[in-house]
Specification:
Blueprint lengths: L1 H92 L21 H16 L6 H26 L1 H95 L5 H15 L6 H9 L2
C-alpha cells in the first residue's frame, strides 16, 4: 500500500506540473489571441475606411467627368461659331479682288485673294529682296509689286472697316475665339482634376487590397492561436481529470487507513468549478488553483 501511495504521489506531482504548464500555455495563447483580435479588428476598420475613400473618390471623378463633358460641349459650340464666322469673313472678302480670281495657265481656278494671302506674298518678296535675288530691272518691278500689294492690303482693310456687317462678323469671331480658348482651358483643368481623382481612387484601391491582405493574415493568425489555446485548454482539462482521479484514490486510501468517511463538500465544490470550466466560463486564478490543490 505504501509503494502504491508513493507512486500515486509521484504521478500526482507530475500531472499537477503538466496541468500548470497547460494552463499557463492556454492563458498565454488567450492573451496573444486578444492582441491578434485587436489587430485584426483594427485592420478591418481601416479596410472599411479605405473602401469609403475609394467610393468618395469615384464619385468625385464621375462629377468631374460630367463637368468635362459639359465643358467640351461649350467648347464645341464656340468652335462652331469660330468656323461659321471665318466662313462668313472669307465669303465677304472674296469679291474685294475679283481681278485676282482668274484661271491659271492650266485652266485651274486660282484661290481668292485675301489679306492673309497678300501678306504671305509680301513677306516672300521682302525675303527674296533682302537675299539679293532681284537685281537690275527686276528690282524695280519687285518694288512696284510690293507697293501694289501694300496698297491692296490697305484698301481691303479700309473696305472691311467700312463694312458694318463684316465688322460685326469679325467681332463675333473674336468673341467666339475667346470663348473657345476659355472653354478649352476649362476642359483641360477639369480633365486634369478628373484624372487626379482617378489616380487617387486607384491608389486608395491598391491600399484597400494591401490592407485587406494584412487583415486576412491577421485573421489566419488569430485562428491559429485560438487552435493552440483550445488544444492547451483541452490538455489542461484532461490533466485536471487525471489529477482529481489520483487525488480521489489517495483520499480513499487515507480514509481507509484512518477509518474516516469521504468528505463530499470539497468534492462538490470542485465538481461545480469543473462544470463551469467545461461550459466555457472564465474562472478566477484562485478557482483554477483550487482545482489543482483539491485533495
Amino acid at each position: 500500500m505504501s509503494d502504491l501511495k508513493s507512486l500515486l504521489e509521484e504521478r500526482r506531482t507530475m500531472v499537477d506540473t503538466k496541468a500548470t504548464t497547460y494552463r499557463e500555455a492556454r492563458d498565454g495563447h488567450n492573451e496573444k489571441a486578444r492582441s491578434a483580435r485587436t489587430a485584426r479588428d483594427d485592420l478591418s476598420g481601416e479596410v472599411r475606411e479605405l473602401i469609403s475613400e475609394v467610393k468618395q473618390q469615384r464619385e468625385v471623378r464621375e462629377q468631374l467627368n460630367e463637368i468635362v463633358r459639359s465643358k467640351k460641349e461649350v467648347r464645341k459650340q464656340a468652335t462652331d461659331r469660330v468656323r461659321a464666322a471665318r466662313a462668313k469673313i472669307e465669303e465677304s472678302r472674296a469679291p474685294q479682288a475679283p481681278q485676282e480670281e482668274s484661271f491659271g495657265r492650266r485652266g485651274r481656278r486660282e484661290r481668292p485673294v485675301t489679306i492673309q494671302s497678300l501678306r504671305r506674298d509680301l513677306d516672300r518678296l521682302e525675303r527674296e529682296f533682302e537675299q539679293g535675288r532681284h537685281t537690275g530691272k527686276n528690282e524695280k518691278k519687285v518694288m512696284e509689286r510690293m507697293k501694289s500689294i501694300q496698297k491692296q492690303i490697305r484698301d481691303m482693310k479700309a473696305a472691311e472697316a467700312n463694312d458694318t456687317e463684316l465688322g460685326a462678323v469679325s467681332a463675333d469671331l473674336k468673341q467666339a475665339q475667346e470663348e473657345q480658348e476659355a472653354a478649352h482651358q476649362e476642359v483641360e483643368e477639369a480633365a486634369s482634376a478628373a484624372q487626379a481623382a482617378h489616380d487617387l481612387m486607384l491608389k486608395w484601391h491598391a491600399q484597400v487590397d494591401e490592407t485587406r491582405a494584412k487583415q486576412e493574415r491577421a485573421h489566419r493568425e488569430l485562428r491559429s492561436i485560438k487552435r493552440e489555446a483550445d488544444s492547451a485548454h483541452h490538455h489542461y482539462i484532461v490533466s485536471l481529470r487525471c489529477l482529481h482521479s489520483i487525488q480521489d484514490m489517495l483520499r480513499a486510501m487515507r480514509s481507509a487507513e484512518s477509518g474516516e468517511s469521504h468528505r463530499p463538500t470539497p468534492r462538490m465544490e470542485v465538481s461545480d468549478l469543473m462544470g463551469k470550466l467545461m461550459s466555457g466560463e472564465t474562472l478566477s486564478t484562485d478557482e483554477l488553483m483550487q482545482l489543482q490543490r483539491y485533495d
